[in-house]
Amino acid sequence: MAQTSDFFAPQAFEADVIDCQVEGTIPDGLNGAFVRVGGDWAYPPKHADDSPFNQDGYISRFRFRNGRVDYTGRWIETERYRNNRAAGRQLYGYYRNPYDCEPEVANIDEPWRNTLANTNVEVNAGRLFALKEDAPPTEIDPVTLKSKGLFTFGGDYGSQTFTAHPKVDPATGELITFGYEATGLASDDLVLTIIDRDGAITRETRLKVPYVSMIHDFAITEGHVIFPVFGYVTDLERLKAGKIHWTWDREAPTWFGILPRDGEANDLRWFKGPNRAIVHTFNAYTRGDTVVLDAPIFDNNPFPFFPSADGSEWDALKSRALIRRMIFDLNSKDDGYREEILFPDLPVIDLGRVDDRFMGRETRYAYTSFNDPAQPIDRDRLGTGARRVINSYGVFDMHDRTMRSFYAGPTHALQEVTFVPRAADADEGDGWLIGTASNYAEMRTELIVADARRPDEGAIGRVVLPFRANVQIHGRWYSDAQLDFGPDAGMESQK
Ligand SMILES: [Fe+2]
Questions:
Q1: 259, 427, 63, 436: CA torsion to nearest 10
Q2: When comparing pLDDT for 288 and 6, which is higher?
Q3: Within 262-414, where are the H helices?
Q4: How far is the CA of 474 from the centre of ligand 1 (A)?
Q5: Annotated binding residue 245
Q6: Any binding-site annotation on 47?
């Protein structure tokens, strides 16, 4: 649970800041919006040991235009948010367990109605979606950031759930997505759906998983999709007992399901390996009969709030992600695969990204955050609220196995990094790293802009909010060409 003194404590207000304070400069070409989604407790959780993933959704936007930046933050008004507001208290129990909710809002047969939409954003056909893996998208008005309700593609969408990490194929503009627990709580159905750039569903493939597991993210290549099935497990019995949705089974093998993008259910092939946690991926590609997946991967349970099935204590030391490459031979006679650790001495945060213009193709660079203990830290000014200090972004060269880093400062903790290309036709890796940092000394949020090719030269610009913004889970950058965010607030105020 969040301490009242730290950056994760509830903030619980909406905000508009016109013409934010900028230190340094914002690059000329950086026009568009950085949209972030995370959570906040509108009302305290019922259980002190609940997952922070059970916070109400909150969406915020840094709008960039000609060197000026406006900020907007709004609650995501799901059915659940509105029910709690009407009651003036928390009606919902443990993470993703309707059996633990107050009966009038439980929605046991329609669990997607309990979604918080608090994990990520994506755009398709001019629509902005807030996403969480337990429900269809929540549509958000990109101009006002007001919530418009669940979106099911005209009723055509065929799963109860929709991942928070769909992929956009850069060549076709297709949105490739899936839902697990697709036909009900703890169901072993997975539905893969392909949505064209105009918002029409063009393909749906219904699959079965080896066991019911968190499939938070996946990967695409030009020819395949890859689903990781790993240690977080659940079943109806557990949910009916009122427990938190996931438990970590250290005996559970890891499975990777690989399916040709145009394949049918019987084309799905499963590869099996030792217990791991693959919460997020970087990217993947197909070369001949080989599929390669790059991802930050844990050897153990990364989340202390999802308890171990065997009752063992959470082990922080074993819960560090290392950047790995999984190599699958589609011609092999057995179900094994090869695992390489690319940067063995460098534990990273697993919120990793690549240049999205090359999604599904071999990418040279991967971006994520990490703690660099060699950099200065100002413990006195950090205060006691700082639980962890992730002070650096890493630009990981997957060819040369080298890394260049950006250091945020002695009182700063970084959230997820995002790559923004310098221009639509720029080379891979030519652009900016952006993301928010928590400045613990000032207890305020700063958005950082650094050059992705020269990260070690420090920030080009910082957008300084006069308060600490809600902590994000994921954020994405959209250029003005990708989504119309309407007139910026500064322009509106001049009318
Ligand atoms: Fe995620």
A1: 80
A2: 288
A3: 379-382
A4: 7
A5: no
A6: no
Distance 131 CA to ligand 1 centre (A): 10
Q: How far is the CA of 280 from the centre of ligand 1 (A)?
A: 6
Q: Indicate the CATH number for domain 15-494.
A: 2.130.10
Q: Which residues contact 382 (CB under 8 A, 6 or more apart)?
A: 389, 410, 411, 440, 441
How would residue 6 be classed by pLDDT, with cut points 50, 70 and 90? confident
Which of 310, 281, 283 has the alpha carbon at shortest distance from 296? 281
Nearest to 406 by CA among 449, 441, 365, 363: 449
The tens digit of pLDDT for each residue in 340-353 reads 999 999 999 999 99
Average pLDDT, whole number, for the chain? 95
Q: Is the pLDDT of residue 36 over 70?
A: yes
CA of 249 to the centre of ligand 1 (A): 20
Domain residue extents for the chain = 15-494
Distance 132 CA to ligand 1 centre (A): 9
412 marked ligand binding residue:
no
227 alpha carbon to ligand 1 midpoint, in Å?
14
Look at residue 489 and tell me whether its pLDDT is greater than 60. Answer: no
State the Cα–Cα distance between residues 284 and 222, nearest whole angstrom.
9
Under 8 Å between Cβ of 33 and 52: no
Closest Cα partner for 476 from 140, 9, 24, 213? Answer: 140
According to the annotation, is 280 in a ligand binding site?
yes
> 306: CA distance to ligand 1 center in Å?
16
**Ligand 1 centroid, distance to 87 Cα (angstroms):** 30
Residue 331 vs residues 138, 286, 416: alpha-carbon distances, Å: 41, 13, 37
Q: Backbone phi, then psi, for 391, in 5-degree steps?
A: -100, 0
pLDDT at 366 over 80: yes
Question: pLDDT per residue over 72-84, tens digit each?
Answer: 999 999 999 999 9
Q: How far is the CA of 463 from the centre of ligand 1 (A)?
A: 25
Average pLDDT over residues 254-261: 98
Distance 459 CA to ligand 1 centre (A): 26
The predicted model gives 99-122 an average pLDDT of 98
300, 301, 283: which is closest to 292 by C-alpha?
283
What is the 118 CA–ligand 1 centroid distance (Å)? 10
Indicate the DSSP class of residue 160: S
Cβ distance 70 to 19 under 8 Å? yes
Task: Dig out the tokens for 444 from the structure.
Answer: 């305020």
- Ligand 1 centroid to Cα of residue 491, in Å, is 34
Tokens of 4: 């009242």
- Identity of the residue numbered 426: A
Kindly state the tokens that stand for 432: 């900016």
